[in-house]
Amino acid sequence: MKTWLAELPEDAVAISADDPIFADSKKTGLPEEFIALCWAEFKHRHTEGGNKAKKYKDWRAAFRNAVRDNWYGFWALSSDGECFLTSKGRFAQRFHGAEKAA
Fold first, then answer.
1. What is the DSSP string of 11-74?
2. Tens of pLDDT along 76-86?
3. What domain of life does the native source organism fall in (predicted)?
C-alpha cells in the first residue's frame, strides 16, 4: 500500500469524493465520519500494522469491501435503524485521534 500511495499523482487523493462508497453510504445511512475512521484503520493496518505485506490489485476496491462488509466491526445498527460505533469503533476513534495529535 505504501508504494501505491507514493505513486499516486501529486494532485490525486487515495479515495476521492466521487468514489462509489460515498453513494453506498448515503443509501445505508453510514456516516462519512465512519468511512473516514475505516480509512484510517485500513491505511494503518496496510502500512504500519500486521497486514503491511498484503497486496491488492485495486486498493480502492479493497477499501470499499472493508466498508461494505464492516471488516473491523466498527459500527452496528440500533433497533431504530441508526448507525453507531461499537466499542471497537470507539477504541479505533480514540487511537486514530491520538495518532493525529502525536
1. T--SS-TT-HHHHHHHHHT--HHHHHHHHHHHHHHHHTSTTTT---S-HHHHHHHHHHTTTT--
2. 999 999 999 99
3. Bacteria
